[in-house]
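Researcher: Next sequence.
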Amino acid sequence: MGGETDLLIGGFMLYYTLLPDNYSSDDYARLYSEISVKLPSFRKEKAEKLIPAKERTENALSFFLLCHALSSEYPSLFSDMSLCDIGKTIFFSYSALGKPSLNPPYADIHFNISHCRTAIACAVAPFNIGVDIQDIRTPSSAVLKRFFPSPEQSVSADDFSVNWSRYEAFTKLTGEGITRSLTDCEYLSDNFLRRTHTFIQSFSIKDNAQKKTAAYLATAFHSDHSDSYLTSPVIIDFSSLCELALL
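Model: Next structure:
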């Protein structure tokens, strides 16, 4: 990128949006019909491959959350631009394993996106990053057998979900996907993280002080950037994100 690199001075931050509990499929379909006209064609094509209206809307909103993160962390590049305008200026490339990246002149900005039933999340950084967000759920016996050494032992929904979010954040950092079991590659062990020079942070996602933890969020990056660790992610109100997407 040559001299363009000096322009890409921005921060590392993790953003998330909690999805409403009271939205029906019809509500999501209506919302998607409104915000989809603001999507660039490459992202709209991907969203519309998803059949359930909720998943299409999550996919669209995750893109707008990325645009918001870019605007917030790289204001010198995206100042005075709406999320729609930012969406028109960025394009994705994909690795052989499907990991997305931004095309020049923004290729030095790294990002990763994740969404689940509860929330959507996005991180941007001046270094390679992996992000995953997971609903709290009780694992099936088949999953336990594949990913944990002693499936006969009790694994709580919280323990499983936080471990799984860390596991997927690592695989999204490397771009390799879920190719090996947790036990084979010891993704969660301190020894493995030291050996692979990886730093992982986990966060409990809550709507407010009264609400039970809704999900676990993890971000992974190489340990030479560990001084960039986050004190907390930034929550963006769902309604506010929708309003920004429609500007």
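Model: The longest helix spans residues 53-73. The longest strand covers residues 198-205.
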